[in-house]
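Hi all, posting the design record for the shared folder.

TITLE: backbone redesign
STEP: 1 of 1
STRUCTURE INPUT:
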């Protein structure tokens, strides 16, 4: 780790002797590290990364590590581990497309607030009781949400708001 940092700082113009002294590593050890040829594992990783990049590009950048691994083993006959493929893809900055399934709840949702009117939607005068609702409307451009506030006595809309999200600002704006 220290020798790699010395190499990066030396490339930025810092003197090797000063950098080695600050990081408390020996200068001779750094020069031995710098002159060392790449390990067989590093050479094999570079070749495998090239193949992984080709397989990933062939999938139109949709395959993740499990599918790339399967393509390497079954399609190309290369023996390599799934975690090694994942590590090399991570260092190369390759990611697949993830399609997560949406989980739909079944049954009624638990009440968030207490029922203050005990389900009696009648009022003796205007502006004593308001009711609200949010509706979802699918459109060609996506979903649109409408929040409305109704005066229970007069049955008139007191306020409404439309947005492309169902956050609390939608209800507050209504």
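Okay, here is what came back for every position:
SEQUENCE:
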């Amino acid at each position: 780790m220290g020798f790699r940092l010395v190499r990066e700082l030396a490339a930025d113009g810092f003197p090797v002797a000063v950098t080695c002294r600050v990081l408390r590593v020996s200068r001779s050890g750094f020069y031995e590290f710098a002159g060392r040829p790449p390990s067989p594992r590093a050479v094999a990783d570079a070749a495998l990364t090239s193949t992984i990049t080709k397989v990933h590009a062939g999938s139109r950048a949709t395959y993740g590590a499990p599918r790339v691994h399967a393509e390497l083993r079954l399609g190309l006959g290369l023996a390599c581990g799934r975690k090694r493929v994942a590590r090399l893809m991570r260092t190369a900055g390759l990611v697949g497309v993830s399609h997560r399934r949406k989980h739909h709840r079944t049954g009624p949702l638990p009440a968030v607030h207490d029922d203050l009117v005990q389900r009696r939607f009648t009022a003796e005068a205007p502006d004593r009781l308001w009711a609200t609702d949010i509706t979802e409307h699918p459109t060609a451009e996506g979903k649109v949400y409408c929040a409305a506030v109704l005066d229970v006595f007069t049955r008139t809309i007191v306020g409404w708001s439309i947005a492309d999200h169902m956050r609390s600002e939608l209800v507050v704006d209504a």
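COMMENT: The longest helix spans residues 40-58.
Let me know if anyone wants the other runs.
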